[in-house]
TrEMBL record:
Chain coiled-coil ranges: none
Organism: Dictyocaulus viviparus (Bovine lungworm)
Family in the record: Belongs to the copine family.
Top-level lineage group: Eukaryota
Signal sequence, start to end: none
Domain VWFA positions: 299-473
Physiological role: Calcium-dependent phospholipid-binding protein that plays a role in ERBB2-mediated tumor cell migration in response to growth factor heregulin stimulation.
Residues in C2 domain copies: 1-126, 130-256
InterPro entries: C2_dom, C2_domain_sf, C2B_Copine, Copine, Copine_C, VWF_A, vWFA_dom_sf
Name of the protein in its database record: Copine-3
Record's GO cellular component terms: cytoplasm; focal adhesion; nucleus; plasma membrane
Length: 507
């Protein structure tokens, strides 16, 4: 019989990072080129006799291009002994709607993850439309979870070459890794800065493995472009360095060279501007086990979503459905996560909160409340959390909205009182069914808390769209909002897929 817990947590696996690009896409727009985005899904549940496609993530939308080179990478857990079927669907994004049916379909590729891993790069023609509709290329990298190094870049440019006497540029930078076969892999793309010849880009972070495959002597290419809305970005110039050179602090500036202009102008050509290395730092990404081995004591808080979008509790379709004979979706998720976390919590104490409900006889929503309805939200162990959850569920009225900021702020207060010597650390688990309503306030709260000994784990249950949560899990760029930037990434997101009342799959 299939044991969900054993399948998820015991099967040998590695983390694979997928980098995507496509070529010769079908042009669906009349007056411009398509604005493509790729949606990556995985088929799960095959072993249980049931199965469905589960979305793993979406790339960014690229404007006006039929040959997109996406910067958003996909992290996929690769189980060696399993057949993992992947689906890549490309859409022309015409609006801000997250509903894919609102956008033009450009083609798809279905394949096994093993095919991608064993063919680097993996190439396959797109299907789903009549005739040839382009090709998808996927490059896979195994991410060594033991690798604890990333690089934080602070870069700018000076005196970029103007295209006309009065004109300025909208410059952005692409950072490429050079593979062993000479091909290039996009590691990062900065934002475009409007009307500027001396741009200063936001700081960004790239994993060392993605940047140079762990080889600090491999060349890293920096290419500066002038952004154009029609997608025909023009090259300003490029340069290359390796990581050893960047970390040595000896190189402060590097000329950006446009070979075509150098050939045309000969000795009269100097450069098309300079890349300024403001600061490059090697970051040590200490793992959870590093802190445990060092004697860090962990404290845990859990916050449960009681908003009306979960469905009326008396209906079997509700994620909060009260069934005397079996657990509901939230209870399964609580058990799956806390059953693991409690082993790292010597006290076995949890602060248990709810949010988004009305607590009778009150008539206004409570942005945060104790599940046990006590001034002290602390309960003992997994059984205490489940008991408090049922206690609250039988007394509250599901309402809304789905606001994370009040919960984060409450737990951040506790984290701010902890000593800063690494001996104590706070973890907040937020279990929710869908989109965040206070995204901007949540970003501000996360940024404010990013200097505290606090991590936030967002666990999604149900079938809703969790896409907007991904921007909180800022693995490649520090979270920014309102002119402020997080000092580190403190958010991780997981989606729990449940079948036969078990956590069948966690991603």
């Amino acid at each position: 019989m299939f044991d969900a817990d054993e399948e998820v947590f015991s099967t040998p696996s590695v983390i694979i990072l997928l980098t995507l690009k496509a070529s010769e896409l079908r042009d669906k727009d009349v007056f411009s080129k398509s604005d493509p985005m790729c949606v990556v899904s995985q088929f799960v549940g095959r072993l249980s006799g049931e199965g469905r496609w589960v979305e793993c993530g979406r790339t960014e939308k690229l404007q006006n291009t039929l040959n997109p080179e996406w910067a958003t990478q996909m992290r996929i857990q690769y189980f060696f002994e399993e057949k993992q079927t992947m689906k890549f669907e490309i859409y022309d994004i015409d609006s801000s709607s997250t509903d894919l049916s609102a956008h033009d379909f450009l083609g798809r590729v279905e394949c096994d993850l093993a095919e991608i891993v064993s063919n680097r790069p993996f190439r396959r023609p797109l299907s789903g439309l009549k005739g040839y509709c382009g090709e998808l290329t996927v490059w896979s990298d195994e991410i060594d979870e033991g690798s604890k190094e990333s690089v934080q870049f602070h870069i700018s440019a000076r005196k970029l070459e103007k295209k006309s006497f009065f004109g300025k540029l909208d410059p952005f930078m692409k950072v490429y890794r050079i593979n062993g076969d000479g091909t290039r892999l996009l590691a990062y793309r900065t934002e475009a800065i409007k009307k500027q010849l001396n741009p200063v880009w936001k700081p960004f972070i790239v994993n060392v493995q993605l940047l140079c495959n762990g080889d600090r002597t491999k060349p890293i290419v920096f290419e500066c472009f002038d952004y154009h809305r029609n997608g025909s970005h023009s090259l300003v110039g490029n340069c290359q360095m390796n990581l050893d050179e960047l970390l040595s602090k000896e190189i402060k500036s590097k000329p950006l060279i446009n070979e075509r202009k150098r050939e045309k102008k000969g000795n009269r050509y100097k450069n098309s501007g300079t890349l300024e290395i403001e600061d490059v730092q090697l970051l040590k990404n200490y793992t959870f086990l590093d802190y445990i081995a060092g004697g860090t004591q962990l404290g845990f808080a859990v916050a449960v979503d009681f908003t009306a979008s979960n469905g009326a509790v008396h209906k079997p379709t509700s994620l909060h459905y009260i069934n005397p004979t079996q657990p509901n979706q939230y209870e399964i998720a609580i058990r799956a996560v806390i059953d693991i976390c409690q082993h790292y919590n010597n006290s076995k104490l949890f602060d248990a909160f709810g949010f988004g409900a009305i607590l009778p006889p009150e008539t206004c929503v409570s942005p945060i409340f104790s599940l046990n309805f006590d001034a002290n939200p602390t309960v003992v162990g997994l059984s205490g959390v489940l008991e408090a959850y049922r206690f609250a569920l039988n007394r509250v009225k599901l309402y809304g909205p789905t606001n994370f900021a009040p919960v984060i702020n409450e737990v951040a207060k506790k984290a701010s009182s902890l000593p800063n010597d690494g001996s104590r650390y706070q973890v907040l688990l937020i279990i929710t069914d869908g989109a965040i309503n206070d995204m901007n306030a949540t970003k501000s709260s996360i940024i404010s808390a990013s200097s505290l000994p606090l991590s936030i784990i967002i666990v999604g249950v149900g079938n809703e769209d969790f896409g907007n949560m991904k921007e909180l899990d800022s693995d490649d760029r520090a979270l920014s909002y309102g002119g402020h930037t997080a000092s580190r990434d403190i958010v991780q997101q997981y989606i729990i897929i449940i079948a036969h009342n078990k956590p069948l799959y966690i991603r």
